[in-house]
Specification:
This protein has 517 residues and is of the alpha+beta class. The protein has helices at 28-44, 66-71, 126-133, 199-212, 238-253, 278-288, 336-348, 350-370, 405-412, 423-433, 484-499, 508-516, and strands at 16-21, 51-60, 80-84, 93-94, 104-120, 145-149, 167-179, 183-192, 229-235, 261-272, 293-298, 304-309, 312-317, 320-331, 371-376, 381-384, 388-399, 420-421, 444-448, 452-457, 461-464, 470-478.
């Protein structure tokens, strides 16, 4: 039974918050043995405090990809999470061995089981933020809570999103960290008698998870059967999409209307011949996910929410905070000359500039309301990804105090890039128009730490597994001058990173099996 950290006093300090680092091991197998030995020592020496969190970590000489390690673990080991930084330069330096070693870039993190989780059906509140932060500290920078939030906590929740609640965060019981040039395996035990979890129960739960952990971490090289697409259904379909875009444009162009932009989305349900392996998909996305975050979040009894998103919501390190504006989309060119021409077209497009400026200025105003100083630099450039390119701006600011982190999150989400402007009018139109549950699509996805935090925007994402095949999500901004057919093509472009992973020519027998079963 997971301990839900939302049930106690959100401002009561923990009795113990510690990290124990052991000598470097040459292999993952030896590191797991050392970790089990350390857990046994913790069991023999009970902690006197009624509450606490202890992380024990064993560095590994080899650099092993966290996603490979996660892919080799049993699918029954849930909850699971994965988060990779967008690029090494965006990830903070972490002291990952002992006091005499050099800090290294933390590239990605994979987690199994939860030492403590945080989930509720009500919207994420300041008390919920305090409930998470009481388990974190600056002296233990790798004790983090990974998770995400719904795009709109007030909207009706579909069955496939029930396990995620309004928000879901987890501090992993067992964690594999990939650094530049090395790795680390860690275990975390958390307890609080006020949350009905004793120290002994927490140790027993960790031991049960460790029994199931595999020390193998090898890429499977396509040894599993790839899922082939049998059928795809869009909500809305093309005719309904055209009607929704027309209605939005009528509202935007109406005299005295305050609505400037609304982001309408599409959910595409894909049926496949075999169950989709979320980590197989993530591995494929990672290979081409330059300048993008990869993430996975899977609560108990739920499908996995995965994504490959280029968009940062914010990154905070102590008092420094940064965000960015991303809007306007074009495909990449087949050659350098065509790519340059397409990029210049995007830079000179009045319609796309209008959409981009709406996003950038909205984020700037929100940061200025919280920060003592705000800078926009660059103010408008191209951000080129493997298949698409966008207009981009970076915004930085200085907070008055670190506790303003909750204000950043609640203020910046949702951005005009995924909702619209004015935000409340756009949100209402989305609620009235869209006939599916966005869930965590376009919501904040990331982590909280003691001195820092980082959240991406959960776009270019999908819900996979648990018998649902896959639900692919994509959205596009509707502003004055938008064309519904061109916007539909943009949706196809954004979901193509997933659809190209599936062979659409499924064998007839497999199709029959799907229908009959």
């Amino acid at each position: 039974m997971n301990m839900n950290g939302c049930g106690g006093d959100p401002r009561a300090p923990l009795g113990i918050n510690e990290t124990h680092t052991f000598p470097v091991s040459p292999t993952p197998a030896l590191a797991v043995d050392r970790l089990n030995s350390a857990i046994y020592d913790l069991k023999l020496n009970p902690q006197p405090s009624d509450s606490g969190i202890i992380r024990i970590e064993v560095p590994i000489q080899q650099q092993i990809e966290a996603l490979d390690w996660l892919g080799w673990q049993s699918p029954s080991l849930v909850p699971r999470c994965y988060f990779s930084g967008r690029d090494p330069g965006s990830v903070p330096l972490i002291q990952n061995t002992n006091a005499s070693s050099q800090p290294k870039n933390l590239l990605s993190v994979a987690g199994l089981g939860s030492a403590v989780s945080f989930r509720h059906l009500h919207p994420f509140s300041l008390d919920d933020w305090h409930s998470i932060k009481r388990f974190l500290s600056k002296k233990c920078p790798l004790i983090r809570a990974y998770g995400g939030m719904r795009f709109d906590a007030r909207s009706n929740m579909a069955p496939e999103w029930k396990g995620f609640g309004s928000f879901y965060f987890m501090v992993p019981q067992v964690e594999f960290d990939e650094f530049e040039g090395s790795s680390m395996i860690a275990a975390t035990v958390a307890w609080d008698k006020r949350l009905s979890r004793t120290y002994g129960e927490a140790i027993a739960a960790l031991e049960a998870t460790m029994w199931q952990v595999s020390s193998i971490a090898r890429r499977q090289n396509g040894s599993t059967r790839s899922a082939a697409m049998v059928h795809q259904t869009h909500v809305p379909d093309k005719a309904s999409w055209d009607s929704a875009v027309k209605r939005a444009l009528d509202l935007i162009n109406r005299k005295n209307s305050s609505l400037v932009k609304v982001v309408l989305a599409r959910s595409s349900r894909v049926l496949t011949t075999v169950e989709i392996d979320p980590f197989e998909w993530l591995t494929s996305l990672q290979m081409e996910g330059v300048n993008a975050y990869q993430f996975c979040l899977q609560p108990p009894d739920s499908p996995a929410f995965i994504g490959n998103t280029p968009e940062r919501l914010f990154y905070r390190h102590r008092l420094s905070v940064s965000s960015e504006a991303l809007a306007g989309t074009r495909a990449r060119g087949a050659n350098a000359a065509l790519d340059l021409q397409i990029g210049n077209d995007l830079l000179s497009s009045a319609k796309d500039h209008n959409e981009f400026a709406i996003v950038r200025e909205s984020i700037r105003r929100k940061l200025e309301s919280i920060c003592s100083r705000t800078v926009v630099e660059p103010s408008k450039v191209l951000r080129k990804l493997p298949h698409v390119q966008h207009l981009y701006a970076k915004l930085t600011g200085t907070l008055q105090k670190e506790d303003d982190e909750f204000m950043i999150l609640s203020s910046l989400h949702p951005t005009p890039a995924v909702c619209g402007l004015p935000m409340e009018e756009a949100r209402m139109l989305i609620s009235e128009t869209e006939m599916f549950d966005r869930g965590m699509y376009a919501g904040p996805v990331g982590w909280f730490g003691g001195a820092e935090s980082e959240f991406a925007v959960g776009i270019r994402s999908a819900l996979v597994g648990k018998g649902c095949g896959a639900l692919l999500y994509a959205g596009t901004g509707i502003v004055e001058g938008s064309n519904s057919s061109m916007e539909w093509q943009e949706l196809d472009l954004k979901t193509s990173q997933f659809t190209k992973l599936m062979n659409t020519e499924a064998p007839l027998m497999a199709m029959r099996e799907k229908v009959e079963h």
